[in-house]
Design brief:
The chain is an alpha/beta fold and 302 residues long. Helices cover 48% and strands 17% of the residues.
């Protein structure tokens, strides 16, 4: 007889009590309830105790070390489930999120790590904003991360506890913790698979500034990897030139995408893409000239 699956859900949190309440409500409405939930606060101005107390089975913990990785590690250490499921505080779980996780692990004992689909949660599905249109196509493409780069996002991630114990904890702010952990896992031979029906929904960023903060951090991490290689800075400059020209090649992809519909939404996606790629070009050039990636890393604040 196979071991019953007990699912522990871990949610890092920082100054997002309203989003956290929505996230916990979505988990409560699921067709498969979590066996336990750990919300790990990472230094909020006010602890979300009142929010957590309103839901059964939720334990609030605190982690002083900045970063979602250390917060998740604290939740894992306190948990007891043989399946670990991770979602971010600003995400909404699909009603079948945990049911799909349980079914996949139950039907296939060889499944070790699961990454699911992350879609944009729209304010008004009939009239997308500029960033909703852009992020619907370009953000959170976990299928591609898994297939091409051997990792998936930690906002929609599930694994067997034995895998976590074998791979080790998530990293801190000095790395992109989702990519770092996933590539350590797949590099060690652990199976990572994409499950399209394992869905969560993430709100689009509200401003261009929120996107630039994301790309500041990711670009700094990427540059650190490049400059450690032979001719790394030269290769980085070639990549910078390619980034500047890349919007010209993206028109067909935007027109063909099935993740948005209508000419208005596609036009908004192209406009946002162009602005973001030009910003990334400037940041990449700045990194090459200053050779100081630490200046862009910043603090975690999702």
């Amino acid at each position: 007889m196979s071991e019953r699956l007990r699912i522990s859900v871990v949610i890092p949190h920082l100054n997002q009590p309203a989003f956290l309440q929505r996230c916990l409500t979505s988990l409560q409405a699921g067709t498969r309830q979590p066996d336990e939930i750990f919300v790990v606060d990472n230094g909020s101005n006010v602890l979300p105790q009142e929010v957590c107390d309103a839901f059964e089975g939720v334990t609030l913990l605190s982690e002083a070390t900045p970063g979602p990785g250390p917060a998740r590690n604290t939740g894992v250490a306190a948990s007891s489930g043989n399946i670990l499921a991770f979602i971010d505080a600003d995400c909404l779980a699909d009603p079948d999120w945990l049911a799909v996780i349980e079914e996949t692990f139950t039907k296939d004992p060889s499944a070790e790590i699961l990454g699911g689909d992350v879609r944009i949660a729209y304010d008004d599905p009939g009239r997308l904003t500029l960033l909703e249109a852009y992020e619907s196509i370009y953000a959170y493409r976990m299928d591609r991360y898994i297939a091409r780069e051997g990792f998936t996002g930690t906002g929609n991630l599930a694994m067997r506890r034995a895998v976590m114990q074998a791979v080790g904890p998530f990293g801190g702010l000095d790395v992109a913790e989702d990519r770092d952990w996933g590539q350590r896992a797949t590099g060690a031979g652990h199976d990572l698979r994409y499950v399209a029906t394992m869905k969560v929904y993430h709100p689009a960023r509200r401003s261009f500034a929120e996107l630039t903060q994301k790309w500041d951090r990711h670009s700094a991490h990427d540059y650190s990897l490049y400059r450690a290689r032979r001719l790394g800075r030269v290769k980085w400059l070639i990549r910078t030139a390619a980034m500047c020209a890349s919007p010209l090649a993206e028109g067909p992809r935007i027109l063909a995408s099935d993740r948005i519909s209508g000419l208005r939404a596609r036009g908004l996606a192209m406009l946002a893409l162009t602005g973001i790629r030009f910003y990334r070009t400037w940041i990449m050039l700045r990194l090459a000239l200053s050779d100081d990636p630490d200046a862009l890393t910043g603090r975690w604040n999702r």
